[in-house]
Amino acid sequence: MENGFNIDFVTTHELVIDEKFARMFPVLDERTSVGLEESILQFGCVIPLIVWEGVLLDGHNRYKILKKHGLPFNTINLEFASRDLVEIWIIENQIERRNLTPIQLSFYRGLHYHAEKRVVGNMSGRNQHNVELVQNEPIAKIQSTADKLAMKYEVSRSTIKRDAQVADALNAIGDVSPDIKMDILTGKTRISKVQLKELAAGSEEDVSAVISQIEEGTHKSRRTGAGNTDGEGAVSDVGDYFADMQPWEVQFAKMTDEFRQVMRSHAKTEDTVAVRASLRQYIDMLEELYRGI
Fold first, then answer.
1. Same structural domain for residues 182 and 275?
2. How many domains, in total, are found in the chain?
């Protein structure tokens, strides 16, 4: 089936809320939610809701407000051949439209990787009786899912692989506590990608333990850098963490960590001259990195 769409005008029919799709969207803070409600009450819902086979794909916050006040709305009905293609559309739509934080971007890229793998797997299953088509394909045209997404998002192949682990860990956390997962994605709760990578390979008990620590306020986000430990006093292997990164990724990560530490030292002072000097130094380093890529 080819992807397509049609538009329905002025409707009030019930839309289906798919919980898996709904959990892929960030929750609006109270101020933004109130502002959206005031705008809809004043001007109506000017942007159509996106629907697939009666399932709401985009516009969950608007739909909630519209139902609350019994207001009509327009829908655009998209056509997809599978749920995985729907999920990929949602992911790409979120990445294109929103100013995402690094953890949110990593999460969406990881979801995209898993959905793309399922699509490729299903296609391979349908073509299992035509193996010669794959065998006769030039090697240069055979591209892994990680390579394909690395090119799309302009990151390294290893970054996409790590993103998949981040998505796995956040989904495991969300299965136990959707609120904690959302707090991590919105930045309210800090947890390093290193810890998320470890959780992706851990047990349900490991996930529950981290959630309990976060709820109790005893969790500490472990940052990558010299002197970090594995929680039992042993120094972590920082070199192994950086080994699969592009050189510019390593340089950027290190200079950004150093810059944060410098700015923290100025946070409680009124020495604006020192702050400006630190900012200028950081900008100069970024420009040098930019010229070297």
1. no
2. 3
